[in-house]
Amino acid sequence: TAALVFSGEARKAPNKGEIYTVTLALFGNALQYLIPGQFVQQGCNNVFCDDLCGLDIEDFKITGTIAADSTSAVVDVTCGSAAAADYFALGFATFGADDEQEIRFVIRSEPIAGGQRLTLNRPLWNGGAGDVVALYPGCDQQFEGGCARYGNQDAFFGAPYKPAYIETVSSGFKAKTGK
Prior knowledge:
about 180 residues; mainly beta; 6-stranded antiparallel β-barrel; two-stranded antiparallel sheet; 1 helix
């Protein structure tokens, strides 16, 4: 079976005969910058269902099958979910199994008779009727949004209520115009 060993950007691959030497950029130049431990922002600093969030993604998993052959970005899934519109938006779905498995980001979802209609970030390559699908909902990382939906506001790690005076505080930097 295939195993993902590396996910990144291949910068160049010069060859000497039949030997190729590939230069890879795992994080690009991201490690050259200092990154704060958290951002003061309205959105949560946790990733949905990570250790700090405290929820388990498997608790929200819905399984089903592809209703009809599809190689488009809109797929009908037969499943036992009558979840509201966009419940799976910002989440992801896996299609197929083993070496043929495809993972797609869900942009929109809407309930249909007997399942869900998903709008994916890109079309499926091998979407066959009856293929196994696992749906995972997403989180908008907002205190009154995703955290409230999943009953997880106690684990929210952001600043949902920005004080009005924040907009009036000067940064101390002067805008430079002209020469």
